[in-house]
């Protein structure tokens, strides 16, 4: 199966000037390193300063979230004037939905894990155009890794190139971030297919595991663009397949998405749809 863009996207990826790609990768990598240092120094250090709840007592926001997003916005405004930013903590800049490019940032994806000191949270930054992610960078502080990708340039983990290997999902791991309604049925189907499901609380890292070859697939619903944009760039550039909840190829789906290595997508999609 070959991934093609969703019908609402251009028929072919938009050409991105090489200098812009290089600069975006450099700046995003620098910001990811900054974030990794801050997260590493502060994760799980007792009660987090400024920690409050948003929608519910498990929906955390901390001073680290706010500080990292402010820092990201300041640097991007200086380096890429006129390119709007969309962020989890401070919303969307004017014209972000219609601008040729937009930056999308999640300063701490997996904040509940960060607060608890559980080593599974990430900083995510992506440059997005009308086709989908152009550049994606994920900082994985607990593993001291920076993952970076750009359209047509592949993926690197701390500078080392990585690609996915086609395989069956049998015997593999699937990273899931699912609603309570979808999780039990999908988990039963995967178990019957002799695959293991892991739910660890970071959409960015769930997708990243597919790009790195650690997982055969990731299945998600209920996410926002900032949760997945950076990691979706990694997955696409590593050779993984990305579809929406209906199985339609889409480089940056909304609502639900399945990311899988070649050879696993059809079976994982079957599990996804079996108990809808």
Automatic annotation (TrEMBL):
Reactions that this protein is recorded to catalyse: a myo-inositol phosphate + H2O = myo-inositol + phosphate
Keyword Metal-binding: yes
Domain of life (superkingdom): Bacteria
InterPro entries, per the entry: Inositol_monophosphatase-like, Inositol_monophosphatase_CS
Keyword list, A-Z: Magnesium, Metal-binding
Official protein name in the record: inositol-phosphate phosphatase
Residue ranges the record marks as coiled coil: none
Organism lineage: Bacteria, Bacillati, Actinomycetota, Actinomycetes, Pseudonocardiales
EC code: 3.1.3.25
